[in-house]
Amino acid sequence: MNRILATAIEAPAMVVKPSTPAISATTRKTRAQESMTFASFRGVGRLPTSDAARRPLVITTPSGAVRSGLRLAAVAAGLMSLLAMVGPARAQDATSAALPFHLAPQQDDSTQPPPAPLPAPSVGALTIKDPAEASDYAAAMIINDPAEQGAALEAFVAKYPQTKVRAEALENALAAYLEARDLDKVDALSARILAAEPDNARALAMGVFVKRTRAASAQGPQTDALAEEAGAEAEKGLAALAHWRGRAEASDADAAAVRSEMSATFNGALGYRALLRKDYVGAKAYYVAALKADPSDLDNAYQLAVCLLQASPVDPAGFWWAARADAMAAAANNSQAQAAIERFVKPRYARYHGGDDGWDGLLTEAGSGLAPPAGFSVAVAASPAAVAVQAVHDAPVSALSFSDWEFILAQRDASPANKAAADKVWANIAALQSRGLKMKFDAKVISARPDGLDVAVTDDNQQTGHADLHVKLTAPLARTPAAGSTISVTGVLTGYTPTPFAFTMEQAEVGL
Prior knowledge:
Elements: H1 28-34, E1 58-60, E2 66-68, H2 123-126, H3 131-141, H4 146-159, H5 166-179, H6 183-196, H7 201-217, H8 221-241, H9 252-276, H10 280-293, H11 298-310, H12 317-331, H13 335-353, H14 359-367, H15 384-394, H16 402-410, H17 416-434, E3 439-449, E4 452-456, H18 459-464, E5 469-473, E6 486-497, E7 502-511
Parallel strand pairs: 5-7
Antiparallel strand pairs: 1-2, 3-4, 3-6, 4-5, 6-7
């Protein structure tokens, strides 16, 4: 039976804080041994030990490099006021709103393997002729704490300003500060590197990431300003990426993986800027490019869904991407992000399709795919007029809700069948009141005067500020309620107007 979803809750359009750039599969130890500084974006923790988390997202990038594990994602629950796409929760820091990650439980000492020997000097260190300098660099590269490692690498560059590995050391410091989630130091060090090397792609990627993260946490004009800054740097980053080459010691696969990570960062920031500008066509192109480079990015998948579902006309591929983001959040055990995504997409899906049937199947399909299949579509719901007629046909009129009454009565003039459906609803209301029953509603005041009120009863009308009930009072009010306040009204429904829809209530009394 088709149901009328008049009380659907709409989530706001910009969500998410941007995710932390993708993590190279190269481990800290291997990178320290081989100075794999091409791995500019670093891991933030191990997988949870739950059964669901033992099946991490494993994405094969276009380069063929396989990366496994959960990514730190700052998806707020407001998107989620985008995200809602993103509310009060947006002001939380990246850690509190992040996809969960947990360190593996500490093993009992008796079962631990013997300590591994210290790693060999890095390739970078081996290019340094001065033994003391090489030793200092190797020592900084094997520090486990990322914040300490970043500081040690900066101190190394200060101590040896002419070192041959200056660029390598600063880029590794950037990666360490990002792992430590110290955005201030990432931003400052990125700016320092760019002052000397304006086309440094990795520094540009780090700066873009920080600005997009801060844009999603900001509010009002500051969000737009930071998104514009991130977009401007992302344009420079894409230009720099065109001639970027990985370090000589990096394998082709690893260098290609990092290129994909940076491409996703730049294109995602440009998509976010376009989304805030309401340039949905431009945003779609950037998000598609970002997801081609990194299909595991939850924020970009969700924001692409928002872009497609807010376009006119609606692009049904947006439902696939929303289901993809929903499935990714579920796989990461991120119930907060999952709930926010569903608050945004489910009412839209039900209105577009005419019900929620098929959504679970779409979740399964999108959870195992990287892009919508060719020819993907979602069946379009019947017209509102047809739905109104069908609703009266499918259920007893007495079982319909107040929101259903409004919906069916509003379609009265669409066709003779709609008039017959509306007459049945109104006859049911009249029959209820013929037994002396009065209607009582909790409502939001839209406007008030001593002898009457205009109020909104349904959730949708309360959100949009549309008065769907004109109240005529039995006696003037001693105190006029303020617009926006919630009151209760009791009275008799005596009529209605279909467009714009509103009931008329007489013999009414107000409870403040």
